[in-house]
Amino acid sequence: MWYVSRFIEEHNHELLLSKFVEYLRSHRKISDFEKAQLNSMRKIGIIIPKIYESFAAQVGGFNMVSFTKQDRPSKQLCDLFWSDGASQEDYRIFGDVLAFDATYGRNKYNLPVVFSGVNHHNQTCVFGAAMVSHESQESYNWVLERFLECMKGKTPNAIITNGDPAM
């Protein structure tokens, strides 16, 4: 079940150009050779992000455009929060302690923020994730407000952070 807190029609955009359709999940295909290559890499202990990097390098790499705040196009996505139904249910049951981690899965774009906890089997549960364009108090406030809104106002008993002053 999706939860949309706000939709602004003016921020909408045109449909995907036909030259990019092949990148949609519904149109992506992985060959038997690529499956075998992926499985071989996993068997020898290569982690998934490194496998993705390897595959990206094989097809010509990937680019990410970054802008300063002053020259950012007005329609560029800046902050995003998401949580699926299973994650929301896990939070309802196991959300007494929340780990709010801005260093989890850190990539070269410095975007991910993860909300996680631990279930009754001592396994990590991801309750939600976000991408923020700036590690600022304002961005973290926005993310936490969206998290609480998505989780129907349920607050954790304790929050663990990585000690970032903006948090």
Describe this protein's structure:
The chain folds into two domains: 18-58, no CATH class; 80-161, no CATH class. The protein has a five-stranded mixed beta sheet with strand order 1-4-3-2-5. The longest helix is centred in the last third of the chain and has 14 residues, at 137-150. 15% of the residues are buried. The chain has helices spanning 32-43, 48-58, 85-94, 137-150, and strands at residues 80-82, 97-101, 112-118, 124-131, 158-161. The chain has 167 residues and is α+β, with helices and mostly antiparallel strands. The protein is built from four helices and five strands. The model is unreliable at 62-76 (pLDDT under 50). The radius of gyration is 19 Å and the shape is globular.
Tell me the span between the first and last alpha carbons.
Answer: 29 Å
- Strand portion: 15-25%
Q: Describe the largest sheet.
A: 5 strands, mixed
Arithmetic mean pLDDT:
76
> In which order are the strands of the major sheet placed?
1-4-3-2-5
Keywords:
16% strand; alpha+beta; 167 residues; globular
How would the blueprint of this fold be written?
Elements: H1 32-43, H2 48-58, E1 80-82, H3 85-94, E2 97-101, E3 112-118, E4 124-131, H4 137-150, E5 158-161
Parallel strand pairs: 2-5
Antiparallel strand pairs: 1-4, 2-3, 3-4
Compact summary:
With 167 residues, this protein is of the alpha+beta class.
